[in-house]
Amino acid sequence: MSNDVDLTNCDREPIHLLGRVQKFGFLIATDRNWIVTHVSDNVGTFCDLVPTDLIGEPASRLLPPDSVHAIRNRIQLLRPHSTVELVYDVAIQGRSDHFDVSVHFMNGSIVMEFEPAGSQSGLSTDVANVRSAINRMSELSELKALYSHAVRFINAITGFDRVMLYKFHPDDSGEVVAEVRRTNMESFLQLRYPASDIPKQARLLYLKNPIRIITDVSDRGAPILTRADSETEAQPPFDLSNSSLRSVSPIHLEYLRNMGVGASMSISIIVRGELWGLIACHHNSAHTPSMRERNTALLFGHMFSLVLETRLSAQEQANDECVAHLTAEISKTLSSCQSTPDLLKSSTQAFAEILKADGYAVVQDKDVSVDGTTPDHRDILEICSKLNTKSGNEVFATHQLSQFLEGAKRYSSKASGLLAIPLSRLPSDYILFFRKELVQQVRWAGNPEKVVTYGPNGSRLQPRKSFEAWQAEVKNTSARWLPQDLRTATQLRIMLLEVVLRLTDEAGRQRKLATERQEILIAELNHRVRNILGLVRGLISQSNSGNQTAEEFVEKLDSRVQALARAHDQITQENWSPAPFKKLVNTEVESYLLEKRSKLITKGPDVLLTPQAYSSMALVMHEMITNSAKYGALSVAAGLVNMELSFNSTEGLQILWTETGGPKVTPPTRRGFGSTIVERTIPFELGGKAKVEYQPDGLIAEFHIPGQHIEIIEQTVFEPVDKTELSDSSYRSLSKLQNVLIVEDNFIIAMEAEENFKTLGAANVCVESTVEAALEAISSASPKFEFALLDINLGANTSFEVGRRLQEEGIDFAFASGYGEGAKLPDDLANYPIVSKPYDKDVIAGLLN
Predict the structure, then answer these.
(1) What is the pLDDT of residues 511-569, one digit of tens each?
(2) Has this prediction a pTM greater than 0.85?
(3) How many helices (H) and strands (E) in the chain?
(4) Rounded CA gap, 345 and 762, in Å?
(5) Nearest to 566 by CA among 620, 618, 621, 623
(6) Of 476, 450, 474, which is closest to residue 463 (Cα–Cα)?
C-alpha cells in the first residue's frame, strides 16, 4: 500500500456511486416500460412488499393508476437541463398513508424517491413568504445585511439549530460570512475552512443538485438492489448524482460527528453558473425537514442567488461606470497639461483609491515619483527591470511579488502585491500600484495543513477531531487583485497612452503660443487693475455719508474692501477662474459670525461663479451677513438664517434668504449704501434680479443670477462614498443589553423585531417561535436574557407560560398582540405592558425607558 496519501484522496472518492440511500425514504427505479430495475433494501419499512419481489415487476405492483398518472404528468415537465420534479401526496398499494415523491431521469432510468408525506396546507403561504423575504432583501443596501437576512429566513422555515452562509474564496477555501444559531452554541462566524473540506466532486454535485439533506449522521444507509442476474453479470454502480436520498460518504459522516452535528442540509448559491457558496444548516440531533419545507428553502435559494447575482453585477457595473467617468474626466481635464509627470501623478492618485492600493510609483526615464507605502527607489527600478524581461506589453498583476522577483521578501511588509501598467510600446516607463503584506490572522477551523493518518475508514485522510480556531499567518502575500481591478488598470493604461500622445503633439503648438499669451496676460492685468482702483474709489465715496464718525466710516470701508479682497483671493487662486459660491459664503461666515456660524444654514447645490459675478456677490453677501449679525436674526441667540439655492441651465441661480427667530423687523426709513448694494448690484452688474421684503417675522430676500455667470461644479476626482450610518440620538441605546429574547411565530415579524433590537444596540437577539423552544432558550441562555418581547398568540398556544418563567427568573418583558388594546392578560401577568402590532423601533425603545 502506498504511503503517498494526500488531500486529493477526498477529491477522488466516488460519492455519487456509493450505492445506498438514507433510510428516511426509499428508492424505486424503472426502465422506460415502467418495469422495476432497482429498489432500495428498506422498501419493506414503508410498504408490505419484499424488495427483491419488486425487481422485474411492473411499477403498478407498488403504485395505483392515479399515482402513476400523477408521476407521469410531472415527468412530462422534465427537461434536459432540469434535475428533479416533485409530486406531493402520492398513494401506494395497500397503504392508507401517502408519500411525497421526487422523480428524475438517470442513464435511461426513471428514478422515484419516496418519503412520508408532509402537510400541504401551507404551500401558498410558503410562496408568499419567499416573495416577502425577497422583497425585503431588495431593499437592503449592504451585502452583509443581505447575507444575514438569508440565513435567518432559512432558519425560520427549516428549524435547524444553526444556519450559516458559506462563501467560497478564489483559492476554493470557504468562509462563514453570516450565521444564526441557538444561543448556547459556539459561533462559527468568520471561520475559514480549507478547500479540501469540500472536495471537487462534491462541488460538482452541488451544481447539479442544489439542495442536499443528511437527516441522521448515524444512518449508514440502505443498499440499492438490482436485477436478479446481477450476481452473474457485472452491473455498473447506480448513479445517484441527482438523488435527494443519496447516502453519505463515511468520511463526511465522521467529519460531521467530530463537529457534534446530528443532521445537516445545504442549499447551493449559484452565481453566473458557478458555485458562489452554500447555505449550510446544522442540527444537534437527527432532523428531517419535510419535502415541502426543503422545496421552499430551494426556491428561496434560487431567488437569493438571482438577487445576489444582480447585486454583484450592479456593484461591478457601478465600479466600471465610475472608472469610465473618471477616465473621461481626467482625459478632458488633463489633456491640455504641459507636464506629463503631473498628468501621470494626478491620474494615478485618483485610480489608487479605486484599486485600494496602499502606494504607487510613476517611473519615467528612471525618474521615480512615489506616494503612499512603497519600496525604495532602487527596489522600484529593480522591479521595472524584471518587468522589462516579460514578453508582451500588457498589465501585469501578482499578489505574491516575492515569487515574481527574487529578493522582494525583504520589503514584503511594504509591497507584497504589484499591479504594473506599462506606459509605452517599448517597456521602460510604468505606473506601479502596491499592496501591503496581508499578514492576516485567518481564523481557520482547524489546521488547513491537515496531516494524513490512517483512520477507521481506510488509508485516506482522517477528518480533524479538533475544530478550535487555528490561526495561519499569510506571509509575503497581499490581497488578491480581482478581475475588475485588471479591467480598471487596462482602462487607465488606454487613457494615459491616448493623453500622452496628444500632449506630445500639443507641446510644439503650445510653445508657439507662449509669447502671444504673455502679451495678452499683461494687457488683461492692466485692465483689471484699473477696474479695481475705480471700484475702491467708488466704495470710498459711497461709504462716506455725512452723519457718521470717522471711526464708523473707516470700519465700514475696511469691511467692504476686505470682502472684495477675500473674493479676489479666491478667484485668483486658480488664475482668475470661476470659484464656488458656497466657499464665498463660508468665508464671510467664518470672518464675521465666529461662534454663530452654525446659525446660517445653506441648502441646495453649489455652483461656480464667474470672476465678475463672484466679486459682485461678495459685496452682496457681506452686506446681508453683517446686517443680520447687527440688526437681524443673527443678532440674537434664537435667530436662524436659511439660504436655499436652486439652479437650472434655463433660469440660472435662485437664492432665497429667509430670517427667523430674530427681533421684529421694520422697514428702513432711508436707503443707505448697504441697502443699495444689496438691491442694485445684481441687476446693474449681472443683469439679474434682487428683491428684499421686510416682513415683521424676519427679512426675506430673493436673488436671481443669470445662467451666463454660472458654471456647474463637476466631480473630477474619485471620492468613495462614506456609508457610515449615523446613530439616532432620539433612541435610547440598548448597547448594555447582552441577550434579548423574541418569541414570535410569524418569522417576517420576528426578523423585523430582531433588526429593530439590533439597530438600537442589543448585542445578541434570540428568536423562537414556540413555547417549548422559548423555555429551553431561557434555561440554556448564558448570560441569561435581560429583556423579552412575547407574541401573545402562538398558533393554538399562548406565551403566558413563557411570561411566568421570565417572571420567576426576574427578567423584564412585554407582550405583543395583533388584537391591540383588546388583548387580555391573566391576573398574575396583568401588570406587564402590551404593544399593539404593527410596532416599530420607537415602540421598542419606549418599552425600556
Answers:
(1) 555 544 544 444 444 444 444 444 454 445 545 555 666 666 556 556 656 655 655 55
(2) no
(3) 20, 35
(4) 47
(5) 618
(6) 450
